[in-house]
Amino acid sequence: MAAGTRPWWATGVLYEVYLRSFQDGNGDGIGDLAGLSARADYLAALGIRAVWITPFQPSPMADFGYDVADYCGVDPRYGTLETFDAVLDGLRRRGIGTIVDFVPHHTSDSHPWFREARSSRSSPRRDWYLWRDPAPGGGPPNNWLSQTDGPAWTLDPATGQYYLHSFLPQQPSLNWRNPDVRRALFDAMAFWLDRGVAGFRVDVLQGLLVDPGFRDDPPNPHWREGDPGFMRLDAVNSSNQPDVIEIVAEMRALLAAYPGDPVLIGEIYRPVETLVAYCGTPERGLQMPTNFNLFSTPWRAEAILDLVARYEAALPTGAWPNWVLGNHDIGRIATRIGRAQAAVAMLMLLTLRGTPTLYQGDELGMEDVAVPPDRARDPFARFGPGRGRDPERAPMPWDEGPQAGFSTETPWLPLPPAGRPRSVAAQARDPMSLLSLTRRLIALRNREPALQQGSWTGISAGGGVLVYDRHHAGRTFRVVLNLTAAPARIDVPADGRAVLSTHRIDPPGVSDGSLALAPDEGVLLRL
User: Fold this and answer.
1) How confident is the model at residue 292 (pLDDT cuts 50, 70, 90)?
2) Calpha distance 224→232 (Å, rounded)
3) How high is the pLDDT of residue 32?
4) Which stretch of DSSP H or E encloses residue 50?
5) Each residue of 333-356: b (16+ CB within 10 Å) or e?
6) Residue 118 pLDDT > 80, yes or no?
7) Is residue 203 annotated as part of the catalytic site, yes or no?
């Protein structure tokens, strides 16, 4: 794609709203669509281009919405279709698109499709899910593991067959090789596109197809003691099938029939060298296979420079990069790398080439929140230490009032400790806060083509300082990130001018061709 013609989703910043923890609008302690609507001005002030909203469809909430019971509705705990339309309209009027979290890999076991499928082996919808006879001698049909660390198969006593589930038993996997399943899910996508959504984030996209022969998964040679049990096997047969790209092409064809260039984002946890296969061709692949690789990369300048360089080199012609530092399934970035580095991480996220996705609360420097056992809500918490995802899902602290402005009642999860981080209201008053820095960064990015769509050139990573350039149409920015707790000095072009610092309102000057950095400081220079 020629420079200057990048689509909206390539040049803007995306923002993930974990709906249950964003803002409670009806006083039940749970975030909802009315609460999201009430905070639309906050999102507009950030300068983001689109909001990805986690599932709000009807669900028994075994996995808090990632167990869908109706693809074309709104769960009453979150609002109504009319409430959703109001959110859509309110955000659109502020120049913000709405991206729906679409969960096509599995349904809830209470979905009418599954209830009908399990009613008998001769049910017309039996083949909508994946059923197998017991192994010879009894037991699951193969060795596939669910993310609960046990078998990915549950026996249905009434029909004598096992059904597949990659997650909880309440989340049976759909059979995407059945054309009727594809049509039904595409109809559900069309339902939301007809309402005017800006696209979809597709949950577990890499797992939509499994090996048609149901062969065992081989051992994972990279598994180490302490890793989750399900990672003992390399999911080459239970997931990651190459023909998933055909499904992506069908989804893209559906989206192409709608105005506004709707975006298709795929949740794919793969190394960059295999992640990029999901890009396919520009018209048939994912616009953005989500790049989570910063989650597992050591927070060292050399390691990050190597990752970015490998990703840039692996991207097919016409593909567009993207970066993520946090989401609702991974511990907070400020916890993973330390509070002192949170601003450096924000500067990096918003200046790497590609589309950044910002997880709600990371602009405040939120950390994982300790959750007492009696208040744990995530069903995965019972599968071992560190498996629960509640700590990164704590509600947003909006102000210093009761319940931090999130709700008028006790929130569904514990709030962050008072003052850590400071609330949205407090940080908005402080020009040196992480929130204020994030707003300045996004505003700068939104007006500078070099930061939106310019080329990326890695410069150096010596002494724990990561340096790279962004360049477009004769304009160059240099990003200098001190990833250490020690002061540093690096050589920079003598004509460089600092335009932003994570530590100071007045950025440091360039003296005699060098730049002095405070510990944990990031600086943006215009060359």
Assistant:
1) very high
2) 8
3) 98
4) strand 50-53
5) bbbbbeeebbbbbbbbbbbbbbbb
6) yes
7) yes
**Confidence at residue 496, expressed as pLDDT on a 0 to 100 scale:** 92
Please confirm, yes or no, whether 267 is among the known catalytic residues: yes
Asked whether the beta carbons of 182 and 213 are under 8 A apart, the reply is no
Model confidence pTM above 0.90: yes
C-alpha–C-alpha distance, residues 354 and 452, integer Å: 7
451, 452, 453, 455 alpha-carbon torsion, rounded to 10°: 20
DSSP 179-201: HHHHHHHHHHHHHHHHHT--EEE
Which residue is catalytic, options 101, 267, 362, 390? 267
| Cα–Cα distance measured from residue 90 to residue 84, given in angstroms and rounded to the nearest whole number | 10
Confidence of residue 2 (pLDDT cuts 50, 70, 90): very low
- What is the tens place of the pLDDT at every residue in 41-68? 999 999 999 999 999 999 999 999 999 9
- 321: pLDDT strictly greater than 70: yes
Contacts of 304 by beta carbon, 8 Å cutoff, 6+ apart: 294, 297, 348, 461, 466, 483
The secondary element (H helix, E strand) that includes residue 310 is helix 301-314
List the catalytic residue out of 24, 67, 203, 367: 203
- Say if residues 447 and 477 touch (Cβ distance below 8 Å): no
